[in-house]
Automatic annotation (TrEMBL):
Keywords of the record: Membrane, Transmembrane, Transmembrane helix
PANTHER family in the record: EXPRESSED PROTEIN (PTHR34407), SGNH HYDROLASE-TYPE ESTERASE DOMAIN-CONTAINING PROTEIN (PTHR34407:SF1)
Domain of life: Eukaryota
Gene3D superfamilies: SGNH hydrolase
Alphabetized CDD domains for the sequence: SGNH_hydrolase
Name the UniProt record assigns to this protein: SGNH hydrolase-type esterase domain-containing protein
Origin species: Dioszegia hungarica
Amino acid sequence: MIRSRALLAVTAIPASVLILYTWHPWQNFSRIDCRRGRQQFEREYGRANLRLSRGSLYRLKKFMDKVAKGESLTISVVGGSVTRGHHVWTEEIWFSRLVEWIRSVSPRKANHISVNGATAATGSDYFSYCYPLHIPSDSNLVLIELGINDSAWEGHIVNLENLLRGLLEMESKPAVIVVEAMAFANGGVGGGGGRMHLPVAQYYGMSFCCQRHPLASHFGRYPELLRVYFSQNYWGDPDTWHLNARGHYDLGMLIASLLLDVACSPPPIDPIPPEASLPWGVEDDRVPPVLPGRFMNSTELDTLPRLGVLDGWDPDTEHRRPTWRPICVSEQSPDATTSLHPVMNDGWVHWEDPDGQTKPYLTTQTPGARATFEIEVGDVGRVKVYSMRSRDLGLGLVRCWVNQDEDQAVKVVGYWDNDASIGRLAVVREGVAPGFHTVTCELLEETADPGGGHEFRMIAIMR
């Protein structure tokens, strides 16, 4: 009865008045002062700190300022076969589309150089050592697309971190974006290497631009979209490793939208405004001791963390990760002076896979074939061999050793039970002293391949 009387009372209110008193779920939000509220939070914590899920954007903001001023810029990318342009024309590659967009928003006089340093069948383990061979050291923006070729293996956390530190410490101080192209291969629906890359990008304040986020669940509801977005193989089935031109275009524009947001966002508000410094040697008792704030200010956004992402906590501020300065010689190097050239060769040949993806190797199929390389070892002190791994290519195994220490030889296996045919690292020796050394590899009669294959495909030697 009470409820019905209430209803009768409401119906007695004129319609014009009733509209004024109608409550909507969002009505209370109209009383929120968005501008003042945002400023309050930003003054206390800093906009960059509050938005770190997108990265600090510090270097990206500087990059876009240079774009707006019409400065000459170098834009580079490292990646796998997607970025190399498998199944699409060069002008259709997402990186080409992105560079085209950057040029479209730049003054006409601007001279932007683009360098596509992608190589097929390689991951962050390769580029963490070999990136200097593929992109110039004066790059202003570097994009990393390795989320497909990297599997969901914890070692790729360290590989991507080394790559990031090396790029961020380049003299040009480039902006860096970690990119994950859409694919349903080498990992679950939630991604493979991208799952390893995301926490590293977040720790270093880098933007992580993932094409999977807006698409994966949508494709799960509409599987027919695979043919719209992915290239097709010989039998007409979607190649879920490689985007088609539509997928490339969308990925390029996804990154372009991030750059546009950065260019159009207001300048950050520091949580700690800079104070005027006292003259050197002057003390003032009225000035309280300066303590660090709970959150970073803008002067810290361009500094590398002193601890690695997987390091344990260490309060000793003298303990920090050393500068990452890798050395690499590779068959995939565009410069012949940094390619694999044995100083002694018995039975190995330079060969390029005819599948059209530009995959050069130093290879042999003859057991007992040996190749010796002279290498310079730096501060890293670790010698590694990068070679092809595959279940389907009939790959054998080699043994490799440093200098004359044949008794310390390590076996490097080509076969593995994995769908992917891709390069992977193998450690030959740790703790090698800086200086010049030799590395020798010999193909064995022994093989792990069920079909008895012996071929071995070497890509690079790193140290």
